[in-house]
Amino acid sequence: MGRSKISVRGLSKVFNPLKGNPVVALENVNFDVEEGEFIAIVGPSGCGKSTLLYMIAGFIQPTKGEIIVDGRRINSPGPDRGIVFQEYALFPWLTVEGNIKYGLEEKGLDQDEIDEKVSKYIRLMGLEGFEHKYPKELSGGMKQRVAIARTLAYEPEILLMDEPFGALDAQTRELLQEELLRIWEETRKTVLFVTHSVDEAVYLSQRVIIMTCRPGRVKNTVNVRLDKTLSREDVITSREFVETRHKVWVDVREEVMKHYCIVEG
Amino acid sequence: MENEAFSGAERAVSLNLRETIGSFISSAYSILVIAIVWELVGRSEIVPYYFLPPLSDVLRSLVVHIADGTLLYHTGVTLFRAMTGYVIASFVGVSLGLLMARFKSANWFFEPIVALLLPLPPLTLVPAFILWFGIGHLSKIMMVIVACVFIITASTYHGVKNINPYYVWSARSMGTSESKILRKVVLPNALPFIFNGLQVTLPISLIAAFVFEMVSGGSGLGSVEIYSARFFKAPELYSSLVLITLVGFIFDRIILKIRSRILSWY
Prior knowledge:
Chain A is α/β, with parallel strands linked by helices. Chain A is about 40% helix and about 20% strand. Chain B has helices spanning about 1-25, 30-45, 55-65, 70-100, 105-115, 125-135, 135-160, 165-175, 180-215, 220-230, 235-260. Chain B is mostly helical.
């Protein structure tokens, strides 16, 4: 075992709104991620899981604690950590091709390399024929394919995904989950995948981190041992899947109920 | 066989032409109706000639004065004033809007000024502008600038402020430096808003120049109209009106064309 790819230590985040009381979004969060690991983070809405991801991405600064990536402390965004948002993050003024090119041009690659990578990731995400379309002309599922292709194209070592399939219909969602797994098997990138779907978390990841209701802390970590080479049907009907899913679900449900008690009571 | 294909192609061409003419006539239908009613009312002598001469007389006067160069000269003068002011207002307006949106201190200083001057009817400044800038080109150009600049400033400001933070985050995570964010993300995002401002102010620039010319006289289409009215030269009066309407229409079409070319993604 080498050192961790990502190490989150004593991380806390307090938001101070202009009006009202400070909000403690995260409190003393600790976990490590190994290189090539696929981690899912689940928790009730408002538990700060997106905030956690944005801090690892370097968009927002922690109030306390630190995030170490490859032995270096993070304090700004960088192309070593690619992010895929839930929606609306493609540049609407660029075509599909233009969006995928963006990160490559920022990286300063030469034109041949850019063209080669663009066509590679257009093929990988099944976007042939859509190269010159603008995001407004695409369905939600196609937009997320482009978003994933855009992030994969500049080849970050870490993939941060913030409910990337949350706004999609069930069929598209399942299709993209399978494609994401296929890509992960091929590239073995380190993936941090935030979702509120227990099924999605267990189906995709090797380890599920369950967060508590606000203030967000790590409640539990559940290891997932599934044979990812099996078909989706075989996986989700297997005993391991059902048991793991139940284990995670019980934890999440407890936190969701607590959340309701706070909100309703 | 060859013959058949040829006639087929010919038919397609003539069909195409007929369609184009047809669509033009159908889209200009209401205009045609107004033109015919105008002509009939003018000929019927229900209204005095100097109130509303028949359209054909107006068009004849239009052709005569275009041919002798006077109308072209005055149209040129009005266009020169409106366009010079418009271009300056565009540059100043966009720059000021960007500045205010990006720098708190600029916003602190200019925001009250813009807030105060934006709702001010610019033509109330005509007497003062005649005193300050005379009755030549300068006063009209200044009026066009004042009438347009704050609208463009406001639309630019809102375009910049309206940015989706995920766009900025995406760009930063892909390695775009803070200094390049403006050009690569903020500006393209603000472009539709900026265009709204440019589109709204284009006819305003013509109005400002035209009305100022009506008040101050001298040259330009506005002065032609006011002199014609003063001497009951009805056909001349209406021909300058027809001309300014046409100019406004053509400009509107041009900016729409540019917009759909540049903002096809929007």
